[in-house]
Amino acid sequence: MRGGNLTVGFFVMAIAWTVIGLVPLNIAIKEIFTDPVLKYGGTALYIILGSWFGRVLVDTGIAGSISRKTQAVGGKAPVLATILIAIITALIFSSAYGVGSAIAVGVILFPIMFSIGVPKNVAVSVFTLSIGAAMYINPVLFNQFKVFFNGVEWGDRYLRFGFVAMAVQMLVVIVMILFYARKIRNGKPIIVAPSEGEEVKEVSPFTYILPVVPVALSVFFKWDAIPALLLATLLAFLMTGNMKSYKGFVKMMNDTAKTAIGDIAGLLIMLLVLTMFQSAAVHTMGQFTGVFKSIIPNNQFLLVLIMMVIAPLSYFRGPLMLYGAGAATAAIFTATGLFPPYYLYGLLVVPTMMAVSADITQSWNLWSVEYAKLDTKTFLLTGLPWAWIATIANLLAAYTLLA
């Protein structure tokens, strides 16, 4: 919030914790600054492919076509159209990932919501909370978070919780839309002028299923996310006519890949440095395991109740946000050995998702606020209560399904 840089902060803290923990230099070089980064290579591929898939959905015209179909409903039934937009957003981001994908989809969906009278604060929260809901089953984000919890794997055990958590948060989003229904119906339409030279692409309705293809392949056929995302990306090219000529296909492939990787370059570097910080934290916290064991409650349900109350500490990269100070919290909980990994995953990922859904320091949330010209305070006051409600419910779901 003060303009600091997370990458620099995590790197400085990795060094500081290495020194505080008196980790020998040869061990630090290998176990803190080398091995964790090399092991993260596979996760980086998930992020790259997820971002690429999101960019392809936009540049091939699939996302835009789905959105225009929704807009046709908007004039007569703006509340229903807003609910459909929320569902479409969640379906797209069940596989797509990255701030670039969010921006590319947002510049299509926001003008539609504004044009049917959805107030800006409601439109932004609908968009960000729907993305946050989708992140519960997004294989790209899962593979980033699982590095904090040894033994947690993508599969039936996690997905039972993931789909429930997504459904719970989407139900909260729909309730929020109904809560603001009167304001939506009476809202003043705002027409956003299209970008100069913007091309409208028409695609087959059969392409509308593509956003959920990667997740479907993972769930029903047990595919890993990498081949699932690759197949869905190739199908998007094929079904939109971008494979009719070899040169055209290669150009489209290179252009979308270049843009997608550029969108997440800064994120990738930050996450690589984060693995160093996480490893340094584990090395150092291991020396204080006895102290933390005497402080942390060992009753799992009591810990869930505490998390329900303090969940907003995930905001502003706080101690419950895994992309912030929560990396240290995860290291502390893991080092105690008091709790099973799946339980810990739910305990800390749910508050993290609260921040992903409605915190201003999440990159796509910040972009959404700036795009809508909405002040930060209004964004936080609109989204936080609903995100908190979803978080309370999902912490109970995590306790029930993962403990």
From TrEMBL:
It comes from Lacticaseibacillus saniviri JCM 17471 = DSM 24301. The chain crosses the membrane at residues 6-25, 37-57, 77-110, 122-141, 161-181, 226-243, 264-283, 295-313, 320-339, 379-402. It comes from the Bacteria. Keywords: Membrane, Transmembrane, Transmembrane helix. This is Gluconate:proton symporter.
